[in-house]
Amino acid sequence: MRTELLNAELKGRKAGLIGKSIHANPYTEFELKEMWLKGWEDGARLREPYISDVDPRYN
């Protein structure tokens, strides 16, 4: 369980979420999912657009 939560936090960070260590802040699973989703959205907003974002032939 702890490993799954840590992995969820790391995925969120890689996607753009900036947070603190799970060991310093033991988040609930729901909070981590929210953080991951927010990180994913922030990462998608901040990254350079992919060709598939603008040209449907590349989807």
UniProtKB/TrEMBL annotation:
Gene Ontology BP, a term: regulation of translation
UniProt KW keywords: Cytoplasm, Translation regulation
Keyword Nucleotidyltransferase appears in the UniProt entry: no
KW Cytoplasm (keyword) present: yes
Domain of life: Bacteria
Family annotation (InterPro entries): Ribosome_modulation_factor (IPR007040), RMF_sf (IPR023200)
Descriptive protein name: Ribosome modulation factor
Classification lineage: Bacteria, Pseudomonadati, Pseudomonadota, Gammaproteobacteria, Alteromonadales
